[in-house]
Amino acid sequence: MKLFSPHTVNLSMFSESISTTLINRASEGDSESCNRLMELSQWVLSRLTTRLLDDQEEIEDLIQDTLTVVIKVMATEKLRLENGRHSYIKLLKSCLRNVVGNHLRKLQIAPAGGSDNLKLLENLIDDRVETIEETRDVTEGVIRLSGLNENEQQVLNLFLLSGKSTADIASQMNMTPANIRKIRSRAFQKIRIYLGED
Predict the structure, then answer these.
(1) With contact defined as beta carbons under 8 Å apart, do 42 and 9 qualify?
(2) Which of 77, 81, 86, 186 has the fewest C-beta atoms lying within 10 Å of its C-beta?
(3) Dist CA 10 CA 16 (whole Å)
């Protein structure tokens, strides 16, 4: 299944730049931006952790522990990320990998392969790259958390995540292409506000 069409890659880059604004404002101590960044971070960490573990209570604990570490790093380092969202995703993944690794050591979990457990964890949470799946997670999180109404969410999901054209979306939603463009424009404006670039 193809996740992104050429159209969505360009729009994905658009959302990266406005995410950098949110990250920078949060790093500078803006409390509203920090709250929104943590909300989005919790979404992304939830997606990552759910791919690793089954126990929902354990997942929630690991996410909270990871967010605590991320907040400490941001507070002590006055975080200005040179590569925007990609650097921040790397920070999230690196913190998550450390927290999960410590958690596994405390529980003395040794699956088949014994000491290879941490190597397996490094492969599952590779902080050197942002996968297409993780890019999709961020996009879904922004769409879900930025206060869009149902139509706006549906249009952006179809456009950004399914790679459908404006004409295809209009046909599927029984609307005109002009209406779809208006909805999409309004949705992007709400996302800009949510991410602090208003």
Answers:
(1) no
(2) 77
(3) 10
Q: Which of 191, 159, 162, 145 is nearest to 17 (CA)?
A: 191
Number of H helices, E strands in the chain: 9, 0
CB contact at 8 A, 33 and 25: yes
Tokens of 80: 């200005």
User: Which amino acid is located at 121 in the chain?
Assistant: L
Inter-axis angle of helices 166-173 and 177-194, to 10 degrees? 100
SS3 162: coil
Please give the chain's pLDDT, 198 residues, in tens.
233 333 433 344 344 444 677 877 887 778 898 899 899 999 989 988 887 777 889 889 999 999 999 888 877 765 555 555 567 778 888 888 888 888 777 776 554 444 555 555 565 666 666 677 777 888 888 899 999 999 999 999 999 888 899 999 999 999 999 999 999 999 999 988 888 876
Residue for token digits 């941490």?
118
Q: What is the DSSP letter of 128?
A: T
Query: Which residues lie below 8 Å from residue 75, measured CB to CB, with a gap of 6+?
Result: none
CA distances from 57 to 46, 101, 106, 144 (A): 12, 17, 17, 23
CA 47 to chain centre: 8
